[in-house]
Each structure stands twice: as C-alpha cells, then as structure tokens.
Design goal:
The protein has eight helices and four strands. It is mainly alpha-helical. It has two domains: 91 residues, 5'-nuclease (Rossmann fold, 3-Layer(aba) Sandwich), CATH 3.40.50.1010; 41 residues, no CATH class. The strands form two sheets. It has a two-stranded parallel sheet with strand order 1-2.
Length: 146
C-alpha cells in the first residue's frame, strides 16, 4: 500500500473495504495502519447505484463513494464484475497490476515479477498470458529480472 500515496493525490478507503482487508491473514496491525497517514477513511453513508447491488459490500461501497462523492477518482478494483459495473457507471478503474506497472514506470519498484508471484502464491489469479504480457511491457522476464 505504500505505493499508493506516491501514485495518487488522495487514497480514500471505504470502511467496508478496510473491514474486508482487516480479516485477511496478512492484514496490517493497528500500528502499521496508523503509519499509513495518507489514508482517508470514508463512512458507509452513500446510496449504492443499481449497477453495484450484486457486488460484495466492499465493492458496493467503492462504487457508491465514487458515484456520490468522487466521480473523477480512479478506482482500484481487481474483481471483473466490479470493474465492469464501474465502467458502466463511467468511472475510471485500475487494478493491482496497473498500479505495479505504473510504480515500475516511475522507478518506485525495481521489479514487479516477484510481487506478482507473491500475489499468485497467496491465491490471487492472474492468467499466465496476462502475466507474460505485463512483464514484457515493463522489460522483465518471467523471473522478474531486467
């Protein structure tokens, strides 16, 4: 998450999303969260657009926040259905891989291959062809080297 404050002017996280992240085995501990002073937390007081009603609570909250208060924001969403709903609402979307690519392009990371491998080993699915295409785009081979 430390990359986000370098890539975006503001990082706003709905409480529902933070709640989902807090229950993961690799979740930040409270002192670590306090160190992320650039994070802004948004309360769950937004009207959920119809396009988002079938999504999970965190995704609904992200779309509701964007539609209601931050329509020009770039949303960080990986889940395919939520990305589709966001695009139907005319919102800009980037995924984890997009963030990693931009961080590499801005020299905030030396390699993204190992980070992709780490996410894959933690159960996040990225298609092999997508992984190869992303690595080629940033000048890395499948082992993360230049």
């Amino acid at each position: 998450m430390g990359l986000l404050n370098h890539l975006f002017d503001r990082v706003v996280v709905p409480f529902e999303v933070w709640g989902e992240l807090a229950h993961r085995p690799d979740a930040f501990e409270p002192p670590q969260v306090a160190a992320l002073s650039y994070l802004e937390f948004a309360p769950p007081d937004f009207l959920v657009p119809a396009e988002a009603e079938a999504l999970d609570p965190g995704e609904r909250a992200v779309l509701a926040l964007a539609v209601g208060h931050l329509p020009r924001a770039t949303l960080l969403i990986d889940e395919r259905r939520a990305r589709k709903a966001a695009k139907e609402l005319g919102l800009r979307v980037v995924g984890t891989l997009g963030v990693l690519v931009e961080a590499k392009r801005q020299d905030l990371l030396t390699a993204i291959g190992p980070l992709m491998e780490e996410r894959i080993s933690n159960g996040i699915y990225f298609g092999p062809q997508l992984v190869e295409r992303i690595l080629a785009a940033v000048g890395e081979d499948s082992r993360g080297s230049r």
